[in-house]
Every structure is written in C-alpha cells, then in structure tokens.
Design goal:
homodimer, alpha+beta, Arc Repressor Mutant, subunit A, Dna Ligase, domain 1, three-stranded antiparallel beta sheet, 6 helices, 45% helix, DNA-binding
Chain lengths: 141, 141
DNA sequence: TTTACTGCAAATAATTTGCAAAACT
DNA sequence: AGTTTTGCAAATTATTTGCAGTAAA
C-alpha cells in the first residue's frame, strides 16, 4: 500500500468522502520529493487531467494539514508550502537564490532539541524546520 | 551611539538620504526586541507621530534588508517579519500557539553549520533561523 | 437520497508599483 | 537646484469564502 493509499484509507475511516480531486491532490503531495505550493500542484495536475480548481486545492491542502497528514510552512517569499509527514526528523535547507528546498538528515538534532528544552523550556517541533542559506549550485555563480 | 544611529550613519555614508520617516522606521526596528511586521511598525509609529504611509514602511524595510541591516523572514501565517542584525548567531523559537518569538543562543550552531557544509555543500545563514514549537507558558495550558 | 464537496466568481489580505508632489543634501 | 523619497491610489499576488450545482456514500 503506497503512502497516498494509507492516507486515503485513514481519511475514509474518519468519515470523509474521497473525490477524484482529493485523490489526485493527495497523490501529488505524497509523491512530491519536496515541499510544494498549491500553485505547483495545479500546474502538475493540469498535465495529467482536466484542471482542478485552485480553490479546491487550497481547501484540500488545508484539510490534510488539519487532519495531520501534511505540514504547512511559509518558507519562501509569500507562498505557503505543504508536504506529507512521511519522513523522520529532518531539516529543510532553503536556498535564498534558487528557492529550492533540500531535505537534510542531521544527527545534531536530538542534542539541539534537548538543549532547547533544558535552557528555554521550549518544546521544539524538529520534524520540520528550516534553515536559509545558499545551496552548492548557487555558490558557484 | 545607539544601534539605530550606527545604521543611519552608515546609510548616510553610502549616499542615501535620511528622512524623518526612515529615521523613525529604523528606530522602531532597531529597538524592537522581536521580529516585527510592516503593519506592527505602522501601528507603533501612529502612537507617536502622524501616520507614515504603509508603502513607505514596506519600501524602507526592503531597503534595509537589501543594504544588509535587516533580516527578513516569513515566520507566521502570510506575513513577512523583519529584524535588525544586532546579535550574533541565534535561533528564533517561534511558538505555534501564542506566536511569540524567543531569541535563543545555542552552542551547537557551529557544529550544525559545519555538518551542513560538509554533507550538503550548503552554506547556511545561521545568524537567523527559526524553529517552531510550543513555548513554556503555552505548554501549561 | 442526503449532505459533503466542487467550481466559479467575487472578497480579502499582504505587498508592490506608477506617478506627481515634497523634501533631503 | 537637482535628484531622491514620499504619499496616494490603483495593481498584483496569494489565499479564502459564499453559494448554487454536483456527486460520493
């Protein structure tokens, strides 16, 4: 059973209706290797099938987020990005020049989490956090 | 010489004109203990003097960012926040519940930076980065 | 058949821009 | 005086919402 099937099954169990639109949007976000915007999903889906209304995409992404199947971040300039909660703790490396987002696994994370809890009583969500900088490709320019 | 005076002096040296509007906006951002939005600056300045047009605030913040005196992040829902580059490397702990931003100094940062450079060739800007989570006050609720 | 979901178009919210008037240097 | 900067209002961009029609269950 693929990742999107798992999500769909669970949503059905919770009493939601699964429409073709929802199925396609869930497929798109579940298979995307990176964070994705509503706009990007719209473009992606238009390649395969008739256009799905952008409002439906926004509503579906928000719904997935509410139901705990997606995370939602404001990474790049004024656009909200979404991703499924597929992976373990990792860092998003956001390139300031080309805006690409690299997922990085980093061992220091648990240490960092403990320090933040100890010193600041802050309970961090380290599943998803973002560091801005310049990626290797853009450094050469 | 205060922090805002330093910025103003440097901008003058670079040939820019310092207007009362710019002076007030720089003062507001330089003395703000936390990241601040254009809207918040507008409200803050309206208490003291006649309103400054919001477009001017946006333009000035962008200009400060371009000139390297402010950082710019998309932390919370659809709003861009700005802050002066006053402190050394630190982490912004953003509370998902009350939206407050705590500045934290963290020793692991240099280690983290080195790992990211080694493993991903990514040059991170660790002066300012953000971790989402729940602050100590909001955990009790 | 019921009522949740979609599409459309209009509404919001944050930010940007063009242009004439105002004001630093 | 000359050019930069501001204010205003209109334009843009991302996102949300109301409502009538459509379709999962």
């Amino acid at each position: 059973m693929s990742h999107s099937d798992t999500i769909i099954a669970e949503l059905r169990k919770r009493g939601y209706r699964i429409t073709p639109q929802r199925e396609m949007i869930i497929g798109a976000i579940a298979h995307s290797p990176k964070h994705i915007t509503a706009e990007e999903i719209a473009v992606h889906l238009q390649e395969h099938t008739h256009a799905i209304n952008i409002a439906t995409i926004y509503r579906t992404l928000d719904w997935l987020w509410q139901e705990g199947f997606a995370c939602r971040n404001d990474l790049s300039e004024g656009k909200t990005v979404y991703a499924t909660l597929l992976h373990g703790p990792h860092v998003h490396l956001v390139c300031r020049k080309c805006n690409q987002v690299i997922d990085a696994d980093i061992g220091v994370l648990s240490t960092l989490g403990n320090k933040l809890r100890e010193k600041y009583g802050f309970d961090p969500n380290l599943d998803h956090f973002s560091i801005f900088g310049v990626c290797s490709e853009c450094q050469d320019q």
